[in-house]
Amino acid sequence: MKRTALIYLLMLLMMANSLISQAQTLPGNPFGLVYGGALTANVPGKVHIHAVTYPLNGITIAAHIYTPANYDSSRRYPAVVVAHPNGGVKEQVAGLYAQRLAELGYVTIAADAAYQGASGGTPRNVDKPAFRIEDIRGMADYITQYAGVNPGQLGLLGICGGGGYALAAAQMDKRFKAVATLSMFNSGVVRKNGFMNSGLTTIQQRLQQASEARAREAAGGPIVYANDTKITDEQADKMPFDLYREGHYYYNRTHAHPNSTFRYTMSSLLDLMAFDAAANMEVLHQPLLMMAGSKADSYYMTESAFALATGTAEKELFLIPGATHIQTYYVPEYVDQAVNKLQSFLSKHL
How many CA atoms lie within 13 A of 161 on its CB side? Predict the structure, then answer.
């Protein structure tokens, strides 16, 4: 009996190790990538990754460019800008999708937001919608000047919070010929109302805190941060929402990166709480694809924005069966479904 139990325990440990190895590249990846199947070398005949920096409004932006196999700068390639989630960095899910799209023949770019990740800007972890939208425009500026890219074939993919900012960017910036989102998160509405409207009773209190933090900054005082606490697994397990519970394990355990953090300056709330990614959706006229997991508790944000996208003649809502919000970031079967859908969408519109 004891021997059977021991064998069963060993099998469970082997399965757990296998799942972890699928989810995370071993530490020491030369490019800092933490997703499964990440590039570990630029091998001839395969996708290549290029670390670049460029100036944007006086700040140095750190980015990765992915070029397709057998890339030839004398040719003309379609390109895709990939915007990362809130608190995320280019080495996580944004890099995964950028790499997968490069495997399909696109030149792609994933950059750390200004004031975040490896990009410049102080104070650190400022998180203002106007800056995130400008980050997307800056990526478009850079990639459309990249050797071999056809600027008339530019797509945009935004993931989680990057999805909300992608919608806002594409509404006004018509360089983007096709727009896609994955697990879209409406950062401003959630920062104001709380996730699933769980914070309606504390709006004024949080605005007061943000106002006081802004006053301290103006007076040269210390920077005050929101969400600047370490969460234990036990605390995460008690969270009521899959998004935050699974997000803890993704960002702090299986796909942790030293440049990735949930914290942001408290004063950023003055801008965040006034922002709605779904505002002006009727202005977005480009083909639109919005993807989300069928079990995602964040789906209501995708559903709302999609319904308001009345200005485009071609739009599609694609649900990934069985997936939660965070699972669309790394679970192979869900990533494959999203990438396959992106392939058909982008090949049609770019």
Answer: 26
pLDDT in tens, the chain (350 residues): 444 443 333 333 333 333 333 444 455 899 999 999 999 999 999 999 999 999 999 999 999 999 999 999 999 999 999 999 999 999 999 999 999 999 999 999 999 999 999 999 999 999 999 999 999 999 999 999 999 999 999 999 999 999 999 999 999 999 999 999 999 999 999 999 999 999 999 999 999 999 999 999 999 999 999 999 999 999 999 999 999 999 999 999 999 999 999 999 999 999 999 999 999 999 999 999 999 999 999 999 999 999 999 999 999 999 999 999 999 999 999 999 999 999 999 999 99
Contact (Cβ atoms closer than 8 angstroms) between residue 251 and residue 87: yes
CA distance 309 to 198: 26
Domains, the chain, ordered by start:
2-22+30-186+229-262+276-349 (3.40.50.1820)
